[in-house]
Design goal:
This protein is of the alpha+beta class. It has two helices and four strands. It has a four-stranded mixed beta sheet with strand order 2-1-4-3, with no helix packed on it. A hairpin with a 5-residue loop joins strand 3 and strand 4.
């Protein structure tokens, strides 16, 4: 490896604000913030809005939309345009 061209790889504390979960992971992200972790060491600190601890895809809490309800709503909204000429009043 060439010297002095690679970013510093170190342990970084990530905080998922939505789930209030902490992750201590190796990373090269740059941050000025630090936080003392439960092991007594101080690590660079990065707050996150979403991680695998809070994202609906990973937690299984994604919102399911009924396709029957969607079709019914579509029919209510555009049904008059879909009617054949013999059905129109």
């Amino acid at each position: 490896m060439k010297p002095n061209i690679h970013p510093e790889y170190r342990q970084v504390l990530f905080h998922d604000m939505a789930a209030d979960a902490y992750f201590l992971v190796g990373s090269t992200i740059q941050t000025e913030r630090t936080k003392t972790w439960s092991d007594g060491n101080t690590y660079p600190y990065v707050p996150l809005d979403v991680s695998s601890a809070s994202h609906p895809i990973y937690t299984g809490k994604q919102k399911q939309i009924s396709s029957e309800g969607r079709m019914a709503n579509f029919g209510k909204k555009f049904g008059r345009f879909l009617a054949t000429k013999g059905d129109a009043s």
